[in-house]
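Protocol step 4 of 5: obtain the predicted structure for the target chain.
Materials: sequence only (see below). No template structures provided, no constraints applied. The aim of this step is simply to have a reference model before the mutagenesis design in step 5. Sequence pasted as it appears in the construct record:
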Amino acid sequence: MMEQKQKNLRKQVAPYERSNLKASIWQLVNTLLPFFGLWMLAYQSLKVSYLLTLAISVIAAGFLVRIFIIFHDCCHQSFFKNRQANKIIGTITGVLTLFPYSQWQHDHNVHHATSSNLDKRGTGDIWVLTVDEYLAAKFWQRIQYRLYRNPLVMFGLGPIYQFLLKNRFNRKGARKKERMNTYLTNFLIAVIVAFLCMTIGWEAFLLVQGPIFLISGSLGIWLFYVQHTFEDSYFEEDQHWEYVKAAVEGSSFYKLPKLLQWLTGNIGYHHVHHLSPRVPNYKLEEVHNKTLPLQNVPTITLATSLSSLKFRLWDEEAKKFVGYKEIKVSLKNNKVLRPEKA
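Step 4 output (structure tokens):
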């Protein structure tokens, strides 16, 4: 019975899995042109006040997040019907966002196929330990995990490590086409940076691009974090894991104000996206509104999403995220025991 309901749900969403050429082109226009305009405005504002530059950079960073959503859709082959068009636009937007198209496409597809599966963690996701794993971990692994999950590290150093450094290298086992796409992306990034540094100066380039990169990067990681780290989330071992439940219950509906929803390309409707990655970002809200079962999903807002910062570990018994303090209290009360696994 449950399996049939899941099939029906996917069937309801299927008609929306087609891109609209006019909508896609318009999104490119209303995203790329404002971003480049804001970038130039930020540069010009250096002559007036750096506070003004920072203010403009915040807005530009929002448009860079929107550019990433276009890149993201191209990786799912949902932005255009033509595969080659997706690769071309995906590579270009990947250069702007510092993401190699083919490599991230691989990792992100793995993420979709394994999201919320406790036995298949490690590719394209945020590092999550269960309570038992944390208690069984060695001292230095706990320290490493605590540092990784620290907000200052995750949202501050995270963009620098992930976007600026890690994305420059091919993953182990990458095929030739994927490696070549990474090389091409790196080459184009280097050419653009060199050109801007020669024309406007490296100081001006860093003063403008630096804040845009850091703000957009932090926002991007934050969005990915709250999409899968929230109260009443879903995680299961492989034998009990179900794709539809992982999509609908393990991915949040991040209800944002309309302006932020627009800038983030509707990615707050993450439950819809995980249920059907082929739905273009500009149709996600429509799918949510017209599919009744998708309206009864975990919903978080700007205010309630802040509570996700206290979630550190997944408690397999309670089926929820918990913090370090909760584990400490439980240990004192002898409610949590160190696991004895073979």
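Step 4 remarks: Residues 232 and 320 are 6 Å apart (CA to CA). The chain has one domain: 2-332.
Proceed to step 5.
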